[in-house]
Amino acid sequence: MVDIVGERVQPGDAIVDYEEKVFPDHQAEEGEKAYIFMHTVPFEGSVGLVNMLTATRVNRKGFDTHLVLYGPGSLMASATRGFPKVGDEAFPGALAYNNQLKTFMDEGGHVYACRFSAAMLYGMREVDMLEGVRPISPLDVLDAALTAKRANALMLQTWTI
Fold first, then answer.
1. Which residues are paired to 156 by β-bridges?
2. Alpha-carbon distance 105 to 28, whole Å?
3. In the β-sheet with 110-114, what is the strand arrangement from edge to edge?
4. Segment 56-115, tens digit of pLDDT
5. Residue-range domain boundaries for the chain
6. What is the DSSP letter of 3?
7. What was the pLDDT predicted at 121?
8. d(Cα 48, Cα 42) in Å, to the nearest integer?
9. Cα angle at 134 between 133 and 136, to 5 degrees?
10. Comparing C-alpha atoms, which of 30, 26, 17, 75 is closest to residue 48?
11. Is 92 helix (H, G, I), strand (E, B) or coil?
12. pTM of the entire predicted model
């Protein structure tokens, strides 16, 4: 049997240096914008939730922040999620997307969801989207990116397939 080197970690132990920060803590300058584009399948990995947390952090840094959901990402805006009834959280974290989007919007973030992908691909109606989410034309996805480019905005784009 191999000898294990070291002691077993205990709850509360640090296993990495979580205090060191390498880059400056930038804050938005007056009028700066950010656009986060997400084409990702909800619950198929951590990308969607991590990007929502990133969008919230960018928003808290003072950027006028816009989250554009398209393709399967439009499903993240669903207000019909829950079990056994809408709004019921069947297990801890089951409504994490909904809760994070609400936090983001409550703090001034803007959320857009492509009505083509919502309706054509997934049968989700505009009325099925969370309150505060703005349905957009599929043509608006490109124009949102061009708007961001012209505004010299921070742009983050994530795709998962």
1. 36
2. 18
3. 133-136, 110-114, 64-69, 33-39, 154-159
4. 999 999 999 999 999 999 999 999 999 999 999 999 999 999 999 999 999 999 999 999
5. 41-55+69-159
6. P
7. 92
8. 6
9. 135
10. 75
11. coil
12. 0.90
